[in-house]
Amino acid sequence: MRVIFRVDASLDIGTGHVMRCIALAGELKKRKFDVTFITRDIKGHLCRIIKQVGFKNIILQASNKVAKNKECDLPHAHWMSVTWREDAEETLYAIGNEICDWLIVDHYAIDYRWHQVLRSKSKKIMVIDDLANRKLDCDLLLDQNFYLEPLIRYKKLIPHKCLALLGPKYMLLREEFLQKKLLRNNLKKDRVNILVFMGGADFTNETAKVIQALDAIKGFEFHANIIVGDTNIFVPTIRSMCNKRGYITLYQNISNISDLCRCSDIAVGAGGVATLERCFMGLPSLVMLTADNQVETTLALDKVGAIKCIGWHNENDHSTISRAILLFLKNLNILKSMSAASKKIFEKDNFCGVNGIVNIIENVSFSKD
């Protein structure tokens, strides 16, 4: 079967949307699906990564001006650089004459109008979403986030016949997270390992702020593994800071984040997909909000004790972050309960994951409407 992904990465969008689509595409490819990505050439794109992992990628050109008219009425319309109608027409042309079996869309700037235009080119449409803030015309919906009342959010936004996959049970985890069980003994350690990942783009350079926070911690033996993404424009500055500090190891654009999660005791990170990955690994996390779409799920995770949210990035400086880390270091026993709470939300006995989602895609493909 032929599957087309329409997804973007940029400095505004971040890298999480493309990375989770790559996770799903990898399983589809294993089952001999013909997979193609359609992405737009905007600053911070991940076209090189998509090609590097072995997928075809049709690149739509960016506009030199931001589209501003009555058709750009979605909160994230500026992510496109063109109108939704222009993007739909360009996507139609990119798909070509052959009708695809599935069109998988992961984009906040796309709603039911775009889907309806593309119906002529696809037998089924799947939408990957987090926001529940616009109408969608799809056959399959996936929202992998943790919410206290997930069903209510999409009640009036999707067609009656749409199959909704809601919650972390359906998380698009990369295979690396599923290969080994987590073995952690972090309550009586002479040295604590701290993982820092502030998102793939980190366009406000929260990473540097966290490094300054670590500098202020005294009286504890620790090592910090710091991860920066491929689109992080502050890498030279961060690398210089890390090279001057013996307690830090810097990683860029790595494919083994799960290994670093396994050997860590505490994480400091931005909200988003990576927060759920850490929860899956049972890794206690301090989380800073860096985007609006992170708020609801981050606060829900905090409420059930899976993470500790310390508020918006612009509300925190290195001293507030340092105090939050110190609270963990002085009370290592709280990590055990936080780890248990974070793993519980996945209901691992019934965890579906990428493999189960592709099973569902195959079943929906051959079901009668």
Short description:
It is built from 13 helices and 13 strands.
Structural summary, described in words:
It is a single chain. The protein is built from 13 helices and 13 strands. By secondary structure, the chain is an alpha/beta fold. The strands form two sheets. Strands 3-2-1-4-5-6-7 form a seven-stranded parallel sheet, sandwiched between helices. Strands 10-9-8-11-12-13 form a six-stranded parallel sheet, with helices on both faces. β6, α5 (about 150-155) and β7 form a beta-alpha-beta unit. α1 packs across α13 (about 355-365) and α6 crosses α11. The protein starts with a strand and ends with a helix.
Series of H and E elements: EHEHEHEHEEHEEHEHEHEHEHEHHH
Radius of gyration, in Å, reads 21 Å
Largest sheet: 7 strands, parallel
Question: Helical region count?
Answer: 13
Average pLDDT confidence is 90
Q: How many structural domains does the protein architecture include?
A: 2
Q: In CATH's first tier, which class of the largest domain applies? A: Alpha Beta
The CATH architecture assignment of the largest domain turns out to be 3-Layer(aba) Sandwich
Summary keywords:
about 375 residues, Rossmann fold, seven-stranded parallel beta sheet, about 20% strand, alpha/beta, single chain, six-stranded parallel beta sheet
